[in-house]
TrEMBL record, chain A:
It comes from Vitis vinifera. This is PCI domain-containing protein. GO terms for cellular component: transcription export complex 2. InterPro entries: Csn12-like (IPR045114), PCI_dom (IPR000717), WH-like_DNA-bd_sf (IPR036388). Gene3D superfamilies: Winged helix-like DNA-binding domain superfamily/Winged helix DNA-binding domain.
From TrEMBL, chain B:
It comes from Vitis vinifera (Grape). Residues 1-70 are annotated as: Disordered. Residues 81-373 form the SAC3/GANP/THP3 conserved domain. Gene3D superfamilies: 1.25.40.990. InterPro entries: SAC3/GANP/THP3 (IPR045107), SAC3/GANP/THP3_conserved (IPR005062). Residues 48-57 have a biased composition (Basic residues). This is SAC3/GANP/THP3 conserved domain-containing protein. Residues 9-25 have a biased composition (Low complexity). It holds the Pfam family SAC3_GANP.
Length: 413, 407
């Protein structure tokens, strides 16, 4: 650190206080937000932090002038947070920041217009990021990480301040998204429900009026929830919305959306092109797509096994497992096509024994009874049209459209 | 006996926690395989540090969380299955279960008969140490209760009602003292077993409508016990080993997701599976449960039934049992819907597929609204393409899978 004189430190602190107080007086949200983003390591805040760590009695400066009295409740803990952040005491930094944030909310509540929304966004973001770091510090010394949970409670409070009528409501979705990030990280996604209800049932505010960035994030997270619930049409609608509206240059975000959208699309019978999987580095899905194209049950099993951990952790395993019936459908369809080439007049009668053989060739051991069972399930779920004759051990396919397409609808359950 | 009793290591740091569920309270007592003495001194160090580092601050926004200071001090001293005060009071009120009456006298009991009742509203603050039983007494009490299950002179519902309530009180005492160790895990496993076996026994006599609520309450406690047990496993887990019974007890959670209700436990299975340690996921018991779930969801009734018959443990079987008729009904529905109209389906074959006696197949078909017929040679058939199929309306007797009568 370059040498810093006491006078310079004093000047920096006073300057910061003046900027803060001016921003509040002139209701200048974008200036204010820069003064709050402490994890950004901006030169402004770094130099302030050094000044604060040298000049211990910053509270005296706060008390010196009347113009600072309005902001001192916020700034005094904020200073401590900035100081501790610079020193790497992340737990202390978080605790102080939470105090500052609470004081900020008190003031924010009283401001009639929404001028400080930008600044509030920064607070909502910072409190989450700081809490994550504080938790890492807690865990490293063998203590319970609990700050992120605390940040969640704080953001719920903020949500309450915004969610009512009036101009501030436009900010509610940003806070919602920060809450989603916390709940997903903590594995407490059931807590999303009440927030979602509040967003989706509000008659006083049209969803489309929220900022586009927040709408995309919101649709991404709620889409994931629908994936976990295996509600594919809703998941498709939400994730597709996120994909269509997200910034096309943010490849990492597109990849995150596709990671969930692809299994959903597969479930409703829509297969991605290979280049898409390659471009976004989602090749873990390519064998599954292959299996669906070829009717290769063995390949499906292998692909699920090979990436089992990854699919389980991201929560798409059960969705992918469900594709099995579609793979069976494809296999039967292939056998049907081969028969048709040999003898079109008999193509629509498939011997169960032939299917048993095909499965044996795929190293799947099944007897005629189980194949009959699977054929009846395919018919029952409308993946195949026809009937089976138990006595003659054949399945007779309908001459019209024997393998109905899913056409964007999930398999009947 | 290695008895490690863990209490809240750092009262002051807990006071800062946000509304905490029991699981996060558990987490603060991270159990290590270190000898107790070392870990205690470590905790003391933390405690000291947090005391110096932060001023005491009043508790805030904490609802339902017990006062950590109280937790620190609560170590039960009651030497009996039931505290003397409660015993005397219940004698006076003649509030004694049949198992507690001395020589059948409804106003007289003894220390070897009375067992502490579950108390719904309990304020830990006013809890006397003498009203709370320490671990060895709780273990003894549980053994006593579980032995009652073999008692044949009372109907099962009566025994169940008693054990159901008194084991709940055991769990209450355990959680008040925050005891987390191998003994507790064993006790919870035993209590889960009790609820699963009861699930089975109550199911087989659930034709009487008054049992459906008992059945429901039993299931509710089963789920709660399982959740607590998983939290205990998690607390006591060291990185590379798992408890002997852990895979089987984890498999119960998956098996409870059979059936059409996607989230019987309030959380999607996908999310839950994502958190289960690999070692458990890949265990034989979990692979079985996951395979069975896949077969159920796919509708592969043939393989579902024979896999159940050959691979389920008796506890797993008891959980699967209620779904077996659901799968059989699906099979009938499929055969009826997809079978060739001119070839009625032989009941003998259905009996093989559904693993039930021919006579039972017939009555099951009828319960599903399907008619059966007999040909001139006396063979029975199910005609297909009938339009009246429905899932059995009343609770249907659960025909055991043929070959599995020993369960």
């Amino acid at each position: 650190m370059a040498y810093l004189s006491m006078g310079e430190a004093h000047r920096r602190i006073t300057e910061y206080l003046n900027r803060f107080s001016d921003a509040v007086l002139t209701q200048d949200g974008s200036s204010l937000k820069q003064l709050l983003s402490i994890s950004s390591n901006s030169p402004l805040l770094l130099s302030l932090a050094d000044a604060l760590n040298l000049f211990h009695d910053s509270n005296r400066l706060l008390k010196q002038s009347d113009r600072f009295s309005q902001i001192s409740e916020i700034v005094s803990p904020l200073f401590r947070s900035i100081q501790n952040f610079r020193l790497g005491n992340l737990l202390d930094s978080y605790n102080a920041f939470e105090k500052a944030a609470n004081a900020f909310i008190q003031e924010f509540r009283n401001w009639e217009s929404a001028w400080a929304l930008e600044a509030l966004y920064v607070i909502a973001y910072e409190i989450r990021v700081l809490a994550e770091r504080a938790d890492r510090e807690l865990a490293s010394v063998g203590k319970t990480p609990e700050k992120l949970k605390g940040a969640g409670s704080f953001l719920m409070k903020v949500f309450g301040v915004l969610a009512g009528k009036g101009p501030k409501r436009v900010g509610a979705l940003y806070v919602t998204c920060q809450l989603f990030k916390i709940y997903f990280k903590l594995g407490t996604v059931h807590l999303c429900r009440s927030v979602i209800r509040s967003i989706e049932t509000a008659r006083i505010f049209d969803f489309e009026e929220f900022p586009i960035r927040d709408k995309v994030t919101y649709m991404y997270y709620t889409g994931r929830l629908e994936v976990f619930n295996e509600n594919f049409p809703a998941a498709d609608q939400k994730l597709s919305y996120a994909l269509m509206h997200c910034n096309p240059h943010r490849e990492a975000n597109i990849r995150m959306i596709l990671k969930y959208l692809i299994p959903v699309k597969l479930s409703i019978g829509i297969l991605p092109k290979n280049w898409l999987l390659e471009k976004y580095n989602l090749i873990e899905y390519s064998n599954i797509v292959q299996a669906l194209k070829r009717g290769d049950l063995r390949l499906l099993r292998h692909a699920l096994q090979e990436h089992e951990d990854r699919f389980l952790r991201s929560g798409v395993y059960l969705v992918l497992e469900k594709l099995e019936l579609q793979v069976y459908q494809r296999l039967v369809k292939k056998i049907y096509f081969i028969q048709k080439q040999k003898d079109p007049s008999k193509a629509h009668q498939l011997k169960l024994e032939v299917i048993v053989k095909a499965l044996k060739w795929l190293e799947m051991d099944m007897d005629v009874d189980e194949v009959e069972c699977i054929m009846s399930i395919l018919i029952y779920k409308n993946l195949m049209k026809g009937y089976f004759a138990h006595k003659s051990k054949v399945v007779v396919l309908s001459k019209q459209d024997p393998f109905p397409k899913l056409n964007g609808k999930p398999v009947n359950s | 006996m290695d008895r490690r009793q863990r209490r809240n290591p750092s009262a002051s740091s807990s006071a800062f926690s946000s509304p905490a569920s029991s699981s996060s309270r558990f987490r603060s007592e991270k159990f290590s395989s270190n000898p107790p003495k070392t870990s205690n001194s470590l905790e003391d160090a933390h405690q000291l540090k947090s005391k110096c580092g932060k001023p005491q601050r009043p508790k805030q926004e904490e609802e339902g969380e017990q006062d950590p200071n109280n937790l620190l001090s609560l170590v039960g001293t009651c030497p009996f299955m039931c505290p003397a005060g409660e015993r005397a009071q219940r004698e006076r009120l003649r509030d004694l279960a049949v198992f507690e009456r001395l020589h059948g006298n409804p106003g007289k009991t003894s220390p070897s008969l009375a067992v502490k009742k579950f108390c719904r509203t309990i304020a830990t603050k006013h809890m006397q140490a003498s009203d709370v039983r320490p671990l060895p007494v709780l273990e003894e009490t549980l053994n006593y209760l579980l032995n009652l299950l073999d008692a044949t002179e009372h109907p099962f519902e009566v025994v169940h009602d008693f054990v159901f309530d008194r084991t709940r009180s055991i769990r209450q005492d355990l959680s008040m003292q925050n005891i987390i160790n191998d003994q507790t895990i064993h006790m919870f496993e035993e209590m889960v077993k009790f609820h699963i076996i009861s699930h089975h026994k109550l199911h087989s006599c659930s034709s009487k409508p008054s049992f459906s609520s008992v059945h429901y309450l039993n299931m509710e406690q089963l789920k709660k016990c399982l959740i607590s047990l998983y939290a205990l496993y998690k607390e006591n887990r060291n990185s590379n080993s798992i408890y002997k019974n852990e895979p089987e007890f984890y498999s119960f959670h998956v098996l409870l997701h059979l059936g059409s209700n996607n989230q019987p436990l309030g959380e999607s299975l996908s999310l839950w599976l994502g958190r289960v340690p690999s070692l458990i996921l890949k265990s034989k018991e979990m692979c079985f449960a996951r395979r069975l779930l896949r077969l159920f969801r796919m509708g592969n009734y043939k393989r579902f039934l024979c896999t159940t018959a050959t691979e389920a443990s008796y506890l797993q079987y008891y959980i699967i049992e209620p779904y077996i008729n659901e799968v059989r009904a699906l099979a009938l529905s499929c055969v009826n819907y997809c079978g060739y109209k001119l070839h009625p389906y032989p009941i003998a074959h259905l009996s093989k597929l559904l693993m039930m006696k021919e006579l039972d197949v017939e009555s099951f078909c009828n319960a599903c609204g399907l008619e059966t017929s007999t040909d001139e040679r006396g063979n029975k058939f199910l005609s297909t393409k009938q339009t009246n199929f429905h899932y059995p309306k009343e609770v249907f007797p659960s025909y055991c899978l043929l070959g599995l009568e020993h369960f």
